[in-house]
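Dear U.,

For the methods section draft, I wanted the exact inputs and outputs in one place so we can describe them consistently. I've listed the two proteins in the order they'll appear in the manuscript figures. Please don't edit the token lines directly; just add comments below if something needs changing.

First protein:
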Amino acid sequence: MSGERREFAWAIVSASVRGRLAMRLGHLPPAGHRVPEDFTSVAVAPTADPNLEDAQLARLAELGVRRVRLDFTYGDAGGPAEHLLERLCAAGYRVTLHLLQPFAAARQMPAADACEEWARFCAATLTRHGPRIAEVEATSTINRRRWAGYNVRGMLAAWRIAHDAVRRHGLPLAGPSITDFEPALNVGVLALLRRRKLLPDLHADNLFCERSTEPERWDHKILGHWAAPWISFNLVKKARLLARVGADAGVPRLISPAAFWTLPRIERVLADSEEKQADYLTRYFVLCAASGALERAGWGPLACHREGLLDNGEEPYPELERITHYARVDGAALRVRPAFRAMAACNRLLPGRLYEGRLSRSQGLEIHAFSDAEHRIHAVWTMNGLAAALPELYDDTDLTAAELLDRDGNSLTDTGAAASRLATLVITESPLFLRWPIARRPAVRTGASPLRGVTVHAHGQGRLYYHRNAAWHGMVRAQDGAEADLLLEALDPSRLVPPARQAALRHARNAIWTLDDPRHAGGKLVVKQPVKHHLHKKLLDRLKPSKARRSWNGACELLRRGVATAAPVAWLEARDGGDLTRNWYVCDYVEGGLSVGSLFTAYNRGQAAPSGITPATAHARLAEFLVRMHNRGLFFRDLSGGNILIRVGEDGAPEFSLIDTARIRVYRGGVPPRHRLSDLARACHKLHPAGRLEFLAAYAAALGRPLGAFARLRLGLYDFKASLKRRLRKTRFYQSLKR
């Protein structure tokens, strides 16, 4: 083992033995610190197109950042990167100039020729631009050799050269540019630098949260999901621990130069990827500010089709990650994404404020308080899919006095008779800001937490409102308070009486019927109410949320994951919970009577292409639809052909949506194979044997792997079970139980 490696390993062992890599209660942010005025930053990159450069600078001014980070490497002198640097300095931005070697040159370090070239580059760049920049960041992602190219000796050689050059020019130096949360590496690298008297002025770590999916979630990548709640490493604890690691080494100032969520990574599970990216950005910056450990936190690319605040169009992603080298911006135009507006709001609401503390104890609900000379601001959100009701978080008088701002800083204040409905808004994963005059001290209710047993789709049309009175409670989605009042009046439980059996869409265990949609003339809503329960259901269902709420939750889980279903409008239920039939689920009415069950029955009768849909097209499209649903963790559990509706698109291809969503089960990863087969057996039950094999083959092709030897057996077992069930239903014993 080389000397550097021994030093590295010993520093980690020493820190571990002394308990410096643990932090009891570190996940709780301390109160009483002020967020720096220039707390946020963003990375920018050059372009050869003058119009695109002008557009970037115009958007930067709208964004409201005071600091920018610019990558600068060999060949950039005299080119677009230098031109952009000069314009940024002239515009008054505090520029972090990120000096880095090309990948091939970094791999050659510490060879003499590579060192000499790096030394010439650093000296020339700082001589020319040093007087105008705010600080220098040197090297890049040193713990990702496949990105940056460094080994330990190469990194030390490159750092020594950059360190000496920066010191000669009297500039602050940031580094060592470690990416993600790997605190042992920070300990080892800083120990090497300290021993050689090469420490930076600012300890730089690109503090990503992508691997945890959500900024506030316990990081399961450290010791697994089972241990995550026990070790409680969330973003706050990570930042505080890294700050302590730096302080132990003699570098107490911590920054996170760049972090981001890529759209493809979000889209592995969730829909609304651009909205989710904006949610994560706001939550990330609020938590970074709350931690008190970070002097500055930055977003990665300003403009990039995969993770930028601005979308520059579909361009091939470069071989090197943009976190390693954000080299250039191409494209014809820059489209503003929700994340841009979210960051602009953070820049207006967070920097310069005093952090007063975290006001909630529930892990699923975050409430963080900030203040300045004029206002007191609470940033409020839940974790993904959860919901909290404003009336259960704050006193009515505090809600009446508050100004509500959405994630993007827009006022949500309604006017007119429905203004009071604003106080019943539902808090979701998309943050809200509540703002009061500084003289008011709003208090959060003791025990504030998300609503139990409720899932919501935060990015559907309109807003979510929670309603509660002495007899019943529920939730409604509406465009504004006036529409919410209209819906709640029409859906008052005293009016939701099932029609006669012959007038209902269905009247068996559940009554399903339509009523006029008060929002749209001629529109229809569908109401579902349970009317009878088998004996075992009467016992088991008392341990679950009401059937209406389960239907709402299932529909929201589908929509969150990009699987089509009839849009949920409301769920309502009696508050006493004594009568299992006193609950109602309301959704939009879906036109058309075509379902997969009726389509497969038509194939069985010999029809070649009912509604213009051939078997090959139906099998392939349905397989793709179900693979996406299963890969995103949704086990439907009642996937009969009648519950899969079909709409023929403009191109003549079938488009699918699901109904009867009360039984859905959600998995953290993809659905296990045996449950996939359970869904598939129900879906193709009415299809003839040859068609089933074709459908299973299409599913396996869309999945990218075979279904296994027991796939046909599973379908046969389901056929036997369905046949046996039909026979039992005709027996006197079953009929007596049913009565």
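Second protein (the one for the lower panel):
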Amino acid sequence: MVQKILGAQRDFSFGQVDVSLKRQDDHPARKAGLRQMVNARILNATSIQNRSGRTALFPITNSCARIEEFTISVGKTFKIAFGPSRIQIINSVGAVVQQFTTQGNGAALPWTAFNLNSIVYAIFNTSIYIAFAGMRPQVVAFDGVSTWAISDYAELLAGNQKRTTFYRISPQGITIAPSATTGSVTVVASSPVFSAALVGTRIRYVSRQLLITAFTDSTHVTATVEETLPGSQTIQFTSNPALFFSIGDQVIGATSNSKGIVITLNGSPNTMQVQLLTNDTVVLPNGSPAGSGVYAFVPENIVGPGGSLASQTQSAIQAPLAVTVWDDEVMNDLRGYPASCFTDQFRLGFCDFPSVPGGINWSAINSPTDLYANDASSPSNAIFEIVPDKSRVFYVVPGMESSEFVFCDRKLYYILINATNPLVPGSVGFQILSSDGCAQVQPRAAQEALVYVNAGRNSVVAITAPGAYNRPFNTNNLTEFHSDLFSNVVALAVPTADGTFNERYIYALNSDGSLIVGKYTTQSGEIKGGIGWGPWNGVGAVAWVAAWASDVLFSTSYFGTPICEILDDNQYLDASLPVNSAPAAFAPPGGKGPLWFIPSQTVNLMDQVTRSMGTYQIDANGFIVPQFNGGEDLNAASLIAGQQWTMVAEPFCPDANPGSDVGQRMFKRRISRFAAYVVNSTGFLMARLFSGPITRTSPPLGTVMNTRRVTTWNQDDDPTAPPPLRETAERWRPLGRSFDPRVAIIKDTPGPLLIEELGIEATI
């Protein structure tokens, strides 16, 4: 008697797993995984059903393939579309209400069709701030009613002070010396550091700004003093100051609180030259503030790191001296502009600076054009910090427990922000969360977690909050058993609200247009259990996927025509379009039919939601060619046209456990019975798939070899009416033997199908 084993799979929560698991009988991913799970979505009950369809919203114009939804103010939701050198603002009915092809300065928008995924934008109040490598950030502003305008981002000017961030980018150790404290001055450098490209930019000399107006040579430029510079003083002592101070020491007056840097020391006649430093908190002896920089040492004790000495006399304010205390603008036409932006804590932020790749700049609170992070006198002022290694910061994303997460090319950090450590100047600390790098793919929030793509672009990783005191956040690879599905991921999308179903999914788009969808759940700040991933494919090629609240948008091309679609659980076709009541965006031109945008192609028709009418031809003018089938009514209000896909669910054939020798795992095997327990079935195919051996003339692995059709309508059903949604068990005896026998359920007609259990009886 032939010994057999029985296998029944009711849990499909791991989705389509890597085929390398097929012999790992006891592995949880093997037990709850499928060899193929194409165009299916996993339910909370761990069963699977035919995936949701997509409703066509509007045709895509000017190759604006990256389309995302946003809310600019209460009750005003729009879509933003990016195409080659183009931005479109699209309203709720699919009409383009504003289009920009140039920056605020008149230059063309710099992106192409091949790098739209690199555009980063953030919404602050009623403005959209857009960052892209090689471009000054752009501001697309909404007037709250109907008007949109674009302008170059520009930092705030407070008097003559430009409220931008300064940082020492030029080589260290080089001194500069302005010729005077006000007006037009000559600035002399100790080594070559200047170039003609610096004209029009600013530098700061001991915290005061100069605007470079002319270039002489690499060590000489002309500049306008925008903030009065502090001068220098010569201080006379009764004894040799070199016994108490050293060149480069910072000293302070015990009475005046004036500060300075020691430049020269002379034991005869006991003098010291000091370059004064600005300090807006200093108050002069006469009670006036020192914010103007016009203040000085008086006869007093001068205190330094090595001691103090009483001064006898001091000179009047003299010309500034050569010091190394100066810095550069972080962003301008010479240094470049940030390629990424974000908003959090009522601040606009920038990162991915060409001049300081590890820098992050937060604006002042509720002042998005104030980036002056060199003044920590107020907690609401701007902030500039640099990650502690040489990583390049791609994104800063607010996440769990008010903290921010810093995604870099070589590291992942988090910045702890809470009531005891608010985001203020001096509070930022970078804690390493992972030493693995991140890809330049924008991370997304997934309920209580954040998901991002690893540096190799072949894995999706989650940041979760397990609640541990010493390690408040963890990272978890979500694609460990699905590595074959991911390759060069370019976009992630995660809905943040429930729609017509309670399940939550992560959508990952590969660069080749393949879409991978994973079902997840969270519990207590962590991803619960495994993630079930599976490919969603169809006739259309997906160019972009995005999510906003419960909406999931797709930019998809059908027969060369791109359209925008939205995930719709009530549809069983992609690009679904009501034939006789198309939305205004698809209104046909004069003399054209409802499918004018895909002429001379084919379409699938469905009527009364679940009644599939088959495939129809479209003529050259976009009209559906009648087939005169029974019950055909091409004028029906309920008629839907779209494109079908094929669902495949292939379980692993169960293996016998090792034991007494009965030939298990050693000989060709046969699946003697294959059963499917289904709900809401409108018909499907039970198939045996080719599984080898491979020869010169054999078909490819997975080719359908023989089948049994479970029909949509039985003999006594009315095919002109929607088919009965059957709850049934179907059984079949496939033919053929193999070392690795393969069978599958194939849903190759539009309509619902829910698989509760797959059963296999196989020989040992």
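Candidate sentences for the figure legend, describing the second protein: The domain at 4-50+647-763 is CATH 2.60.120 (Jelly Rolls). Helices lie at 28-31.

Thanks,
Y.
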